[in-house]
Structures are given as C-alpha cells and as structure tokens.
Amino acid sequence: MGKLPYYAYFGSSIIYSVPQLHDEMEIYLSLNHNGSFLVQDTRYPLETGSLIIIRPFEIHYLFSSVKDHTDRYALRFPVSFLEKMSTPETNLKKLFENVPHHIMLSQHDLIKFSSLMEDLIAPVQIQFGEDIYRTLLLEKFLLAVARKLHDCKTDETAEIETRDRTIMDTITYISAHYLESIHLDDIAAHLYVSKSRLCKIFKDHTGISIGDYMTMLRLQKACVLLKENTMMVRDIASAVGFRSYPHFIRTFTNKIGMSPKKFVRESKK
Fold first, then answer.
1. What is the dihedral of CA 19, 24, 27, 28, to 10 degrees?
2. Which of 29, 66, 160, 189 has the fewest CB atoms within 10 Å, counting from its CB?
3. How does pLDDT run across 208-265, given as a tens digit for each residue?
4. Residue 66: per-residue pLDDT
5. Rounded distance between C-alpha atoms, residue 38 and residue 205, angstroms
6. CB-CB contact of 145 with 27 (8 Å)
7. Which of 22, 17, 21 lies closest to 62, judged by CA?
8. How many independent structural domains does the chain possess?
C-alpha cells in the first residue's frame, strides 16, 4: 500500500530530546508523570494523561532527567487532513488551531485514547482496503480528540509551570531582536543579570540553551516563509537573521532534516 496519512509511535525509553519544529500537526499523550514538555515559550510538567497539541512550526521539546522514563504515544499528521474531515458545521482545523496546548484526560479518556493509538501503531497488513482502514482509524482518533478539546472546561486544562520573569523577558527580547546579531552580553545587560545566571535559569527552565532557542526561532520564521514560497531561499536566510547563507543551509538541513529547497518541494505536495 502507499504511504500512510500519518506517523504514530509508542515510546518507553529514557529520552534525550532536541528542539523540533515541523509543518505537521502533532498530538502527544503522556502515560506517566516524568519530564516536562516545552511548546513555544511555555513549559508544561507532564502527568499521566497529559494531552499536548503541537501546531505546525511550533518549537517543541521533551526533556527529563537522566533517570526518567517517558512513556508516551505520539501522532503526526498533515493539517490538510483536518480540512478534509471538516464540514460546514464542524471546522476541525479551526478547533485545533485555537485550543490550549495542554489538557488533562480522565482515566476513562486515557484508556480510550490509548486503545485508539494502539490501533494506529499496529503493523500494517497487506490486504485489500488497508489504506481506507488506516484513514478511518485516524479519523476516529481525531474525532475523539476533537470532541474532548471542544468539551474541555477551564478546570480541565493542565497546570502551566510557573514561569520565571527572567525567562519571559529573555524570550520577549529574542523575539524582538532575532533579526539582529544578538549576543548574550546584550541580553544580560538588558535584563541586568549576569550571563552565567541568565544561562542557568534559561537552561533549567526550558531544557535548551539561549543559543539553541534563538536558532529554532529563526528556523521557525524561515519555515513559514519557505511555505509561502514568495522569496528566494538566500533572501529568506537574511530575512530571519542568518548572516551566512551556507550556515543557514547547514543549520536548516541539520535541524529540519532536509534542505530548504527540498522543504519547499515537499510543501507543495
């Protein structure tokens, strides 16, 4: 059969994650209370039943201590699939674009969603209609998630880990100046804090360095511009703050998993 309309997996090992971003929607389901999950500028402590929605081109990162096992399911699929499922009465794309990043599931919902995920990750059978069957499984799971997201109340949204003011001010500064050549000295001076303390606070909270965050933010902006396909790749590199075109190509390919030109081609499919 052809390519599945989704990528799903179950993970149960100690994980050393790196910041990621991609052009698909992702759903992450935590099966224990180990670790934290960063989405954009917010860190969420993981609990059993944490459901995280990651939208296209959002920086995200799972991190935990060396001793933590992070049991989880994850599913990635194109946003266009939500558009195809939608009707005039039920706009799934709009729903997923506007819900909180993180909600808590009840034990009943966790069992239900886990069972649906098991169906999605089951080995593909080479038989007639398998592609249709897999599409129906994905639709069934997404509809179940959509109903939960639509019905969730304020008290069901997960707790956001308290954010240090220094972290928020750092992210605000980077967001305002990412087009420039930013140095740690500039940020530290702006916040009236030592470089060593600034780096420690940021790494402790987000799990990544300030330099890595700046790089991912620039790549996030680059992905959006590449998707629009109205500028030359070289112009996009400078437009998002990269001073060297070769460095942009190497960094993009390393972090995104493909070259900018291939990313443009894949986006057109």
1. -20
2. 66
3. 899 999 999 999 999 999 988 889 999 999 999 999 999 999 999 998 888 999 998 8
4. 55
5. 9
6. yes
7. 17
8. 2
Query: What pLDDT is attached to residue 154?
Result: 44
Give the tokens for residue 178: 């990412």
Tell me what pLDDT residue 12 has. Answer: 78
Whether 34 and 110 have beta carbons less than 8 Å apart is answered as: no
Structure tokens at 123: 């080995």
Q: Is residue 78 part of a domain?
A: yes
Which pLDDT score is estimated for 68?
A: 65
Q: What angle do CA 250, 55, 29 make, to 5 degrees?
A: 105
The pLDDT of residue 19: 81
CA angle 204, 221, 265 (to 5 degrees): 125
Q: What is the C-alpha to C-alpha distance for residues 42 and 10, in angstroms, rounded to an integer?
A: 24
Q: Determine the average pLDDT of the residues in 105-116.
A: 95
pLDDT level of residue 17 (50, 70, 90 thresholds): low
Domain residue limits at 58: 7-156
Residue 145 shares a structural domain with residue 260: no
What CATH number corresponds to the domain at position 140? 2.60.120.280
* Cα(84)–Cα(131) distance, integer angstroms: 16
- Asked which of 108, 138, 156 is the last residue of a domain, the reply is 156
Instruction: Give the C-alpha separation, 99 to 156, whole Å.
Output: 12
